[in-house]
């Protein structure tokens, strides 16, 4: 029997105890990842996932999430999903109930969520709306849908994105997507990722969190990995899969994470912001890396009373 373990990126601490409770009861890694991420998605204090996630350049919250199972490499994801507060559950439903597909986006993803009976909710909270207005320096009257932009979309997005990078590099506290990786007593390994994506992103933008190999990869032979931060870099570098391939070659976990970030960092990128990665192996070893010091991840084993915070190594 495998000793269960669950790990997560910054701000997963609110969800990990719920995931570990599932694992302690002999539940599956898939149930544990979903349970942990749902709590994170419902956390109104968190502006990077689920309800109260920061909106796109038009003031509309669009969520990306994915889940991948190590033994089968089954993958399910939704992207640019509007109006559903728990995209991780919809991503799981894509994997389980629509196995002829892996990824649904936008309106189609919402249609599928509706058909599955998921509840809708208003995702833009007062606070996330205030942050949006401040960041884009919008008057209250200009914060609704098509009327949001005095500037045309692409130009407004680019200006906002530049401002964002100025404010976030170096970032001023824990931010970004949430990754949860779990290993259950049967030895199954699952990786889940949930995000509202880059704040003020161009409408319809899909990030690394929803795409296999980029923000999420899980292969029971070698390990699972997931990313937070500058998604376009991990999309271009295939970062999560790069980590797992290095694990397959026998690299230790932190080295695999550091080398994958170093590879992504070689790519030219005007909007360069930090990319971070986390990994967990089928024998329960874990590690993470980031581009600058101070970044952490959280870990729970069956004996943990609460999540333990571990430093990530620096690329
Ligand atoms: N990786 C996420 C994305 O690109 C953003 C983040 O983690 O900050 O959508």
Q: What is the end-to-end distance? A: 34 Å
The helix count comes to: 9
CATH superfamily: (Glycosyl)asparaginase
Q: Estimate nothing, just give the exact number of structural domains.
A: 1
Structural class: alpha+beta
What is the number of E strands?
A: 13
Taken from the alpha-carbon principal axes, the silhouette is globular
In helices, the fraction of residues equals 25-40%
Q: CATH first level: which class?
A: Alpha Beta
What's the multimeric state? single chain
The sequence of SSEs as H and E is EHHEEHEHHHEEEEHHHEEEEE
- What's the average pLDDT? 90
Low-confidence stretches: 145-149, 168-172
Largest sheet data: 8 strands, mixed
- Rg over alpha carbons: 18 Å
Cofactors, ions, other ligands: aspartic acid
In the sheet with the most strands, the strands line up as 4-3-2-6-5-1-11-12
Strand percentage, roughly?
A: 15-25%
Q: Could you say what the CATH architecture is?
A: 4-Layer Sandwich
The CATH topology label is Glutamine Phosphoribosylpyrophosphate, subunit 1, domain 1
